[in-house]
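Please decode residue identities from the backbone states below.
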């Protein structure tokens, strides 16, 4: 929905600080059409110069004199960046771009593993058709014609796989998106077919079919006619030794790529776990229900808002199963912020020191509702709920930063960083630290002031077990006072935390899926290569068993090759993964990109999967009947 910008007072009546004629407002996105001959890059320099002039002019205005040194420094660091708007502007693009780049790299690795697997199958198929190919060559068939035929076959296989993949992708996309929303709030992405995606997929399909079908086709067309036309089934070093070496090399590459994917998945899953288990400072978030109201949109003036909030809070506290209730102007864990420069009694700000504090205005009972203990002083009460109230409560981090081990109660602060800022707000209490925006941002220095009904608020209600059952009751209490009052964002605080971690959950979910898919493909490929090797060495193994070799030694003979491929793959994959760790560091939390525990767990998992994949051919090799193996000798 789009409305004229002049409707801002009607749409956001309480956001009085956002005015269309305010030159310093940054709440709008500006779109411009360039003159002919200009590009975004060529227009960047003159626009940056204009922005610099405007910025210097703003510093001369009276309002700038009230800024702190830190605020002025940050303002002067601002830059103007032009972006191409051919595809429009999307907040989702900004939120998910880095995560999607990581996932695209993972998709590429899975594609390489799948292609290596297909190449292995094509090599095995070409080896099985050596006699047919040799007969064609001996009868005058040209090598080029055979290569073209084999490439056509690989292209048919590739296109069939691509078509099946597209159908499966569109079928699974809706299911994938269903895993992402929280509390019934859908992710606004339309999973409809797109011509660009289809063309890109077609191009990748054709390219992979050509590249990974070419090597098997060339090797098959270079068959040794004399050797291939002999009956050499089961020979020890007959045709295909080079092909077998290539196939084993592809398996080692798959192991390396699988390690990359599994290691990355482990990092992302562990990072998500760290984020979800971070101490938020809020007690039992699953039993803490939140919803938002904006009475001003219904035409309420300030006295009516105050009355409405007071009555609603009293009614909610009387609902059966409700233990406590309160409200705040800034919704928690939403990524929203209300920050302000502060001046603190007894503290002389140093040059460039960040004096910002994150603000919130609260009702009495808020801290009890959230499970945040009051460490010193008192909570807000009815006497503080008036417009001219000059009291505040700060969190532990704020108190420690400015007062150290001394008591903060009774000290004063002021909003603003100018030297003449009045220190007229008394600190009446200190509370335990809690999160403000989200786990990644950590604990901020916070200042809480009384909320007497000026703004839209988020209510927080502490309920007994089974918070979802309270949804209808809470909505009903709102409707009793005003049937036309919309209730927004009704959910538990635990669900809100999950929504805040949406990007991290998406990466962890998909990377884990890609990692296990890659491991399964590598295991299938390893099984196929070892089964192929055992079939080629049937006579050798039969001779060994006939001469008295133990079955355990035959099993070890096969498993030794599996171990060698695993070691080679890990020798490539482990350094590569550790080297790529810094590139995903921005997506991690509470864990290093070279975490040894994740690396060790990944190695153990790959070792177990490789052992399971190689054990079946090894056991089959140990059960070979020497008489049948040597029958044609």
């Amino acid at each position: 929905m789009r409305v004229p910008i002049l409707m801002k007072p009607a749409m956001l009546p309480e956001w009085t600080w956002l005015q269309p004629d305010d030159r310093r407002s940054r709440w709008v996105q500006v779109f411009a059409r360039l003159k002919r001959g200009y590009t975004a890059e060529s227009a960047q320099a003159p626009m940056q110069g204009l922005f610099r002039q405007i910025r210097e002019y703003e510093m001369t205005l009276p309002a700038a004199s009230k800024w702190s040194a830190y605020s002025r420094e940050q303002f002067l660091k601002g830059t103007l960046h032009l972006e191409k708007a051919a595809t429009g502007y999307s907040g989702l693009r900004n939120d998910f771009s880095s995560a999607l780049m990581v996932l695209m790299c993972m998709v590429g690795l899975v594609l390489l593993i799948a292609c290596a697997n297909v190449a292995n199958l094509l090599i095995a198929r070409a080896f099985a058709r050596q006699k047919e190919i040799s007969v064609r060559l001996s009868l005058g068939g040209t090598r080029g014609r055979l290569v073209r035929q084999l490439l056509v076959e690989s292209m048919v296989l590739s296109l069939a796989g691509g078509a099946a993949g597209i159908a499966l992708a569109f079928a699974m996309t809706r299911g994938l998106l269903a895993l992402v929303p929280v509390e019934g709030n859908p992710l606004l992405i339309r999973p409809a077919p797109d011509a660009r995606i289809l063309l890109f997929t077609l191009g990748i399909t054709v390219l992979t079919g050509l590249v990974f079908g070419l090597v098997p086709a060339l090797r098959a067309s270079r068959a040794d006619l004399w050797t291939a036309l002999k009956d050499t089934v089961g020979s020890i070093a007959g045709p295909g030794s080079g092909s077998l070496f290539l196939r084993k090399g592809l398996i080692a590459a798959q192991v390396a790529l699988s390690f990359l994917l599994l290691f990355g998945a482990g990092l992302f899953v562990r990072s998500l776990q760290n984020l979800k288990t971070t101490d938020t400072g809020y007690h039992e978030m699953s039993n803490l229900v939140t919803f938002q109201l904006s009475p001003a949109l219904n035409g309420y003036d300030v006295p009516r808002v105050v009355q409405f909030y007071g009555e609603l809070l009293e009614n909610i506290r009387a609902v059966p199963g409700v233990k406590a209730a309160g409200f705040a102007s800034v919704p928690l864990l939403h990524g929203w912020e209300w920050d302000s420069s502060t001046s603190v009694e007894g503290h002389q700000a140093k040059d460039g020191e960040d004096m910002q504090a994150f603000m919130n205005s609260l009702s009495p009972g808020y801290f009890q509702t959230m499970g945040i203990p009051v460490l010193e002083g008192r909570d807000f009460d009815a006497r503080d709920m008036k417009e001219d109230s000059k009291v505040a409560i700060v969190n532990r981090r704020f108190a420690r930063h400015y007062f150290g081990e001394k008591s903060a109660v009774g000290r004063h602060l002021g909003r603003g960083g100018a030297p003449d800022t009045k220190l007229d707000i008394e600190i009446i209490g200190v509370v335990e630290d809690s999160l403000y925006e989200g786990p990644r941002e950590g604990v901020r220095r916070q200042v809480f002031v009384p909320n007497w009904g000026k703004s839209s608020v988020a209510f927080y209600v502490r309920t007994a077990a089974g918070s979802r059952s309270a949804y209808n009751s809470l909505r009903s209490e709102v409707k009793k006072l005003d049937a036309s009052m919309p209730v927004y964002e009704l959910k538990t605080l635990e669900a809100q935390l999950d929504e805040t971690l949406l990007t991290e959950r998406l990466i962890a979910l998909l990377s884990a899926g890609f990692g296990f898919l890659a491991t399964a493909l590598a295991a299938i490929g390893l099984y196929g290569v070892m089964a192929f090797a055992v079939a080629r060495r049937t006579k050798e193994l039969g001779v060994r068993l006939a001469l008295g070799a133990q079955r355990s030694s035959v099993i070890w003979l096969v498993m030794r090759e599996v171990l060698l491929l695993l070691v080679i793959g890990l020798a490539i994959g482990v350094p590569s993964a550790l080297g790529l760790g810094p590139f995903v560091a921005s997506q991690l939390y509470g864990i290093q990109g070279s975490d040894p525990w994740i690396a060790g767990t990944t190695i153990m998992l790959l070792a177990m999967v490789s052992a399971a994949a190689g054990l079946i051919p090894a056991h089959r090799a140990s059960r070979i009947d020497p008489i049948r193996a040597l029958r044609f000798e």
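Observation: Residues 295-485 form one domain.
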